[in-house]
Amino acid sequence: MCRLVYKWFLLVYKVSYGIGIVGYFVIMCTLFGLNILLMIKPQNSMDFGLLMLFYGLYLGVVGRDFAEVCADKMASQIGVCFLAHNTTLNFPLFSIYSRPNCTVVYHL
Q1: What mean pLDDT is predicted for residues 43-71?
Q2: Where does the chain show beta strands of DSSP type E?
Q3: Which of 41, 48, 52, 90 is deepest in the core (most CB within 10 A)?
Q4: Between helices 42-77 and 2-31, what is the axis angle to 10°?
């Protein structure tokens, strides 16, 4: 089960990375004037490039955060306590998924 989940998040990462690269490539082509060869207006080309770039960034960040939540949830389901204590604030950050009677504690 864990392998399937991590393969899925790797796929999401690769797709979001690819979308960001395509957006960056379209923006650079627009700045160099290659959109005129394809008879595309600069406004449309730049809008498409920026949209792709920021969608790639957004999907990458959301995918990373969701993968972190799923990894914490899977770790709690198999019996691994994961408590991360912030030393400056002195409160547990991830104690939601931990089991109270376990002896193994991992720190960030």
Answers
A1: 91
A2: none
A3: 52
A4: 160
What's the pTM?
Answer: 0.65
C-alpha–C-alpha distance, residues 62 and 59, integer Å: 5
Q: Which two tokens stand for residue 6?
A: 């991590």
Q: Please state, in angstroms and as integers, the Cα–Cα distance from residue 47 to each residue in 9, 32, 43, following that order.
A: 28, 15, 6
Residue 91 has pLDDT above 50, yes or no: no
Secondary-structure breakdown of the chain: helix, strand, coil percentages, each rounded to the nearest 5: 65, 0, 35
pLDDT of residue 105: 55
Distance between CA 103 and CA 80 in Å, rounded? Answer: 9
For 87, which DSSP code?
Answer: T
Which one-letter DSSP state was computed for residue 93?
S
